[in-house]
Description:
This protein is α/β, with parallel strands linked by helices. Helices cover 32% and strands 19% of the residues. The protein folds into 2 domains: 7-81 and 198-281, 3-Layer(aba) Sandwich (Rossmann fold); 83-192, Glutamyl-tRNA Synthetase, Domain 3 (Glutamyl-tRNA Synthetase, domain 3). Strands 4-5-8-9 form a 4-stranded antiparallel sheet.
Amino acid sequence: MSSSTYCGRLAPSPTGLLHLGHARTFWVAAQRARQAGGILLLRSDDLDAVRFRLDFVDAMLEDLRWLGLTWQEPMVAQSARRPRYRTALEKLHATGLIFPCARSRRDVIEAASAPHEPHAGGVHDEPVYPEHFRPENHVPLPPLDEKISVNWRFRVPIGETVMFTDGHHGPQSALAGRQFGDFLVWRKDDTPSYQLACAVDDAEMGITEVVRGDDLIRSTFRQILLLRALGAEPPAYYHCRLMLDEHGERLAKRHDALSLRALREQGVTPESVIRKFDSEAKKP
């Protein structure tokens, strides 16, 4: 990838304070952009209306700057891009690649033919949607309401192996319909899903490499299918190994003691945090 075309992104979600795990991923993204002589964009993934708070936006900007990260202004907010996601949904609808779904998550989990995704655990993972739940292809789609009140799912190509080569973990593959199934693209609360918003943003923002945690590898297969359906070229992907706590659990926003805000208040310096990232990077 030539240095003149590299475009990476930071995509924090303002639903809590950033912790060391977030910071390490963003630091890796910044390092890869710098080494490529490229640029970084900043996107606020603020579609979660229930957990989103404005003070978390201010906190994440302060924390990122404290760590010494820079990006091209202005910041992009997903909440301001809903019309772009709706346009993408309408395109998927016009090509018959989505369908309305009245099944609950419990219905899917309890279905005898709905195995849990292997290695699941990421916040955006879903149980595998049973093939017999999906409508037949010949069934006409109802129109998209102006205000959507039913879930819409993307129809995955059952039996196709979706593949990509990860910049950190190497070749990755997953069988559609078995390791991941028909997934949500729009929710009944009239909110675009993470998968759709992320795919649309990465394409329209010209992102050439996505750097994120390896709990999102499963999401990458879904987003590759969405990008293909929307006529966009997928970026390269680099999934970082997650940081773990003393119990071997991956860090989450409940780990307030390991938030950048708490560390700053304790007098920890950005340099010592970055040294910790360097030592983490050397682990097998």
